[in-house]
Amino acid sequence: MMRGNQRRSANRPDPARPWRAGMGRSPFQNSAWAYHNQRLRIMESFSGRGLSWENSLAFLLSICLGSSHDAGMRDGTSALIDLRSDTVTKPTPAMREAMARAEVGDDVFGDDPTVQELEAETAALLGKEAALYTASGTMANQLAVRGHTEPGDEILVEANAHIYYYEAGGPAALSGVMCRCLNGQRGVFTGADLEGALRPADPHFPRTRLVCVENTHNRGGGKIWSLGQIKEVETAARKHGLQMHLDGARLWNASVATGIPERDFAAPFDTVSVCFSKGLGAPVGSALGGPKSFIERARRFRKMLGGGMRQAGIIAAGALFALRHHRARLAEDHANAKALASGLAGLRGLEADPAAVETNLVRFRVLAMPAQQLVDRLKSRGILVLAVSADTIRAVTNLMVCAEDIGKVVAAAAEAVRR
Ligand code: TLP
Q: Does residue 371 lie within any of the structural domains?
């Protein structure tokens, strides 16, 4: 989505804060700068300023992984405000420390205790028998599709669902299945929509096997499916013997916004994917939860795709840290998203609806110019957002963005639409 040259220009120097990492230095200069800072911190840690030998060692290890103590997290001083996605976050120092300390083993042999801990904790949270750590949300979803179907089958997905829209044709390429699309309202479809898409058992037709729901819905602007809406679709699906998969990449957001535990949202589904590398801020990974036998089968498909990872505990530790410490704070992202939509709603030339913001995604229409033009203008002011269609922009609040940043974004947008 973001090309190298775009990234370079977005990282232009900020004369006011030349010391910020990533601002105006070459990658080599950045490494040298980071190295210099790290050396300072090592000296501090060994000069008896309260760091134990164990912590010092952990810190040294964190350096091997590449420390980012000045990652600009939520302190309002970073020159760049990145709202392209909640995937852009960098691990916090505490998360890096947990990663540096992680106990690891060869996970393909089943020897990595940190991966196992993450899988067990995720399964428990989702109320499922087992879970499998995967490299990405895409992999978790595609493993689910593969596990529920045989080539020639059909799956029912909402027309804007990530599984259909953004996963590179995975269902066709990896599982040999057809996607039948349902048109939802901001990603939400009904039991009647589902039944309307079913066909009688007949050798002419593909077998319909699986229904996929996305909660929250990405292209639906972070829309939350209610338990009632899910129940209605489940009733229709079960009546026709269909399996149910939930793409819960942002299920954490739905839970925090509603107060409904993840396991309640997950209960109607056979399988659930969740992401650690979005709102929770972990650097890598997702998980697929479901019945033990299904997860064992998915483990085999994961290996087939080259997704068996060896000492994955290093990254799983980041995910585990995120799961334990970063869920509740999503409420901040939601408040920031609301504030952003309210600010933008007051600007001429834009159309934003704060009432439609339920979680951390804000979609707004640009009336005054093509959406990409506004994206470019904001970029030249150090603000990154994405055009998701010719007239619509998406901004995603995240761990790296604080309330103060929202005011800056609204002010920059006001200037950019006026110009
Ligand atoms: N979404 C990304 C992009 O791929 C569009 C984003 O920036 O929002 N399910 C949902 C609902 C998602 O939004 C995403 C990522 C995924 C699955 C896939 O996760 P990854 O990127 O880990 O493969």
A: yes
* pLDDT per residue as tens digits for the range 223-237: 999 999 999 999 999
Of the candidates 174, 119, 395, which has an alpha carbon nearest to the alpha carbon of residue 302? 174
Region 338-356: what's the mean pLDDT?
A: 98
Q: How many domains does the chain have?
A: 3
Give me the domain span that covers residue 345.
74-91+329-419
List C-alpha distances in Å: 82 to 104, 266, 395.
33, 31, 9
Same domain, yes or no: 165 and 190? yes
Decide: helix, strand or coil at residue 140: helix
pLDDT in tens, 377-386: 999 999 999 9
d(CA 238, CA 268): 10
Beta pairing class for 361-366 and 392-396: antiparallel
Query: Which residue minimizes the CA distance to atom 4 of ligand 1?
Result: 166
Q: Is residue 250 part of a domain?
A: yes
- Is the same domain home to 248 and 115? yes
- 61, amino acid identity: L
H or E stretch covering 78: none
pTM of the model: 0.84
Do 399 and 380 share a structural domain?
yes
Q: How far is the CA of 290 from the centre of ligand 1 (A)?
A: 20
If one residue of 162, 247, 252 were mutated to test the ligand 1 pocket, choosing by the most ligand atoms within 8 A of its CB, it would be 162
Q: Does 285 lie in the same domain as 223?
A: yes
Instruction: Give Cβ neighbours of residue 253 (< 8 Å, ≥ 6 apart).
Output: 216, 222, 224, 279, 330, 333, 334, 359, 360
* Mean pLDDT computed over 35-41: 35
| Type of residue found at 242 | L
pLDDT band at 82 (very low <50, low <70, confident <90, very high): very high
Query: Rounded to an integer, what distance in angstroms lies between the CA atom of residue 173 and that of residue 170?
Result: 5
